[in-house]
Amino acid sequence: MISIRQRKGIKTTEVPDDYAAQEANVKLESKLPSEGCTSRRLWKLLSFMVGGTVALCIGLLTSVYLATLHENDLWFSNIKEVEREISFRTECGLYYSYYKQMLQAPTLMQGFHGLIYDNKTESMRTINLLQRMNIYQEVFLSILYRVLPIQKYLEPVYFYIYTLFGLQAIYVTALYITSWLLSGTWLSGLLAAFWYVTNRIDTTRVEFTIPLRENWALPFFAIQIAAITYFLRPNLQPLSERLTLLAIFVSTFLFSLTWQFNQFMMLMQALVLFTLDSLDMLPAAKATWLYGIQMTGLLLVCILQFFNSMILGSLLISFNLSVLIARKLQKNLKTGSFLNRLGKLLLHLFAVLCLTLFLNNIIKKILNLKSDEHIFKFLKAKFGFGATRDFDANLYLCEEAFGLLPFNTFGRLSDTLLFYAYIFVLSITVMAALAVAFHNLSDSANQQSMGQVGKCTIILKPETAYNLIHTILFGFLALSTMRMKYLWTSHMCVFASFGLCSPEIWELLLKSIRLYNPKRICIMRYSVPILILLYLCYKFWPGMMDELSELREFYDPDTVELMNWINANTPRKAVFAGSMQLLAGVKLCTGRTLTNHPHYEDNSLRERTKAVYQIYAKRSPEDVYALLRSFGADYVILEDSICYERRHQRGCRLRDLLDIANGHMMDGPGENDPDLKLAGHPRFCEEIKRNLPPYTAYFTRVFQNKTFHVYKLSRNK
């Protein structure tokens, strides 16, 4: 962390682990009898045992708390199986369906075969689900459930959701440990865990999106950050370093295996390493190890996913290779005067950027990769590089989850004092980082390694510098895309709690206002966190108890009626078309074949989805029928909530996105682009309900309730 030291006229060879006051204490302690040293070790051991016990307890309590909220919100233990499955909305239901599919398979080998040669997720196509999706966790859980003697005591759905809530215990424990490692006291870990729970709305959504990929991945990501924090400490023993590298590799691999967006999150991490390495805030050898682990973990996942081209064409692989190549080419990067060094740094940055884009384009052309192009179209439109009429990009732009972080988020974070504490700690560490970076660039002629500090009076420990840049980059990501806030807010708890319990932070602050005293540091680093903990208990404990006592029940009779009707009145091999979100539930609850689904990371699937969604556009019945039959659809489900949507403003309703993509003018009052034209046909989802001959010739209504309309397609056309 940050520490203050006296100026020295001679070079030093190592960065001291502790600040100046602690060095004086060490000299005094060396004169004490051996009994004092023994008692100190016993105290450290006792503190470690107490802190570890608290970490485990707080993790388990958080897990139980979230599981109880889920039960109370849905009355999950009392509702029917079909209602439980419907509660897994959108893509959550799709992922859970593969767990169910593996359990229903007569043997494990048949279950694997069904996933590798799947022809029910996308009609008229056979796809490898293990290659396309990150569902190895469902496979692993289904095997465990088959092997363990728990079938008589625990239903499959409970084994699944309890595993996810158990991972939350690991998640909170990892956050706790990271804060403890940074500050040196487990009190900061306790404060981080309390902040995580009291800011639950902004730190997790596991209780209502249980099977979501991020709920599997983020606990492993937190373990990885904790392991990296420990790995970046100086003077680690060789055995400790090897074990830590193993922990980093395993957690990186599991994180990559469980979430399709792993490459983008690790790219942010790689940018953190690149920034710190360029500014001499990180040992170059350790940065190289971490680059290598990222690539190795991702390539191993690529192999397990049958050489998924999206992984091979990821920016992370190209960036890490470019950094290592550019470093070899620019051997004297970290020498010279300030201006010389700055020029070399800018040249290095330019070389890495150009090489990354070159390698990435070459790989994508060789692999003919288009799976992730919708993400770049979305980013291009989001950050103002030209308006777009691309359906896929606009579909993301119009979703609240992919919009800017709402301002009221900061109000909620401020109510728990988290945001204030975070800004306080961030301000001090940023100023310290700027001072260290300026010194490193200015004195690079006299500084050949991380161990040499020269005349710099401020020291920023590598593990602190890593977490600082990490929280800044992920903060920018969260501000730009609300869905990614869960990566930032959880780390915000860690960073704020560490700063309030850090002796170096308080020392720097007190010295800057000329109130420095070792006793004051001790008082501040313990009293402030304890006061905040008392405040959180006083203000939020009654609300949490009320929340736990509030009982609700799942209620969605229209969807339940639809699923029951499909099960009772349609052939097992029937193919259904409709919205992505609804069809995921159709597959889970009925096992019927789909035309499209919510896992959007495939170019052909995106084109298929846009074609199926013409049921909500202004198209003729002949066109819609031809499109649906081209995908083998037997039934189409129309939803009034989409056809007459009012949730989004004009221009962001699904029917508007389709009209714009088709070159048609939008409905309702408001402006249209001058080149948009009037459609030659009425809106299909509205006109079909009038049962006019042009529609009844192709579609026959077979089911209807307040929400859904199911039409059977004629087979003789």
TrEMBL record:
Lipid bilayer topology: Multi-pass membrane protein
Residue stretches in coiled coil: none
Keywords per UniProt: Glycosyltransferase, Membrane, Transferase, Transmembrane, Transmembrane helix
Subcellular location: Membrane
Organism in which the protein naturally occurs: Crocuta crocuta (Spotted hyena)
Taxonomy of the source species: Eukaryota, Metazoa, Chordata, Craniata, Vertebrata
Family affiliation: Belongs to the dpy-19 family.
Name recorded for this polypeptide: D19L3 mannosyltransferase
Chain segments annotated as transmembrane: 45-67, 169-196, 216-232, 244-261, 298-324, 345-363, 417-438, 465-482, 488-510, 522-541
Record keyword Glycosyltransferase present: yes
GO MF term (any one): mannosyltransferase activity
Pfam families recorded: Dpy19 (PF10034)
Cellular component, GO, one term: nuclear inner membrane
InterPro entries per the UniProt record, alphabetical: Dpy-19/Dpy-19-like, Dpy19L3
